[in-house]
Amino acid sequence: MIGRRMRSESAMHETPEAFIDAEAAGHTWVRRSPRPEDDHILGHTRNWLNALPQGVCPVRLPEDFPRITNELCVRWAETAELESYFAELEFSPREDRGGFPPLIKEELLAMHVYSLRNRLAPFEQRVPHQLSLLG
Questions:
Q1: Which of 37, 115, 131, 44 is nearest to 80 (CA)?
Q2: 132 domain-assigned
Q3: Could you tell me which of 71, 103, 106, 131 has the fewest CB atoms within 10 Å of its CB?
């Protein structure tokens, strides 16, 4: 997959169990090659950050991890991709990963909770409920 970490097919549903299964199947986790734009916040990312409410908009994440901030911006509109990315950030079994500092974890958690509370349910979950309202 261009621009994202390489993943095995078994890790496409990125739950902790999927990571364990992929590792057991011999998958090795690698980080994609760095790109020049990884070192700074892109314009569309800055616009997205400015639209987030206070208390949700991260302060340290864009400064300390601009690549991750840019990735979150790109995936924000796609519920399934965003959820996979949050899971990847939280559960990545990559051996060279040291984890995030506590403040970054708090900012990621605030964004994750906000995204969960402010997204529509998938279409498949809304339709039966809407049909039941019609009688």
A1: 115
A2: no
A3: 131
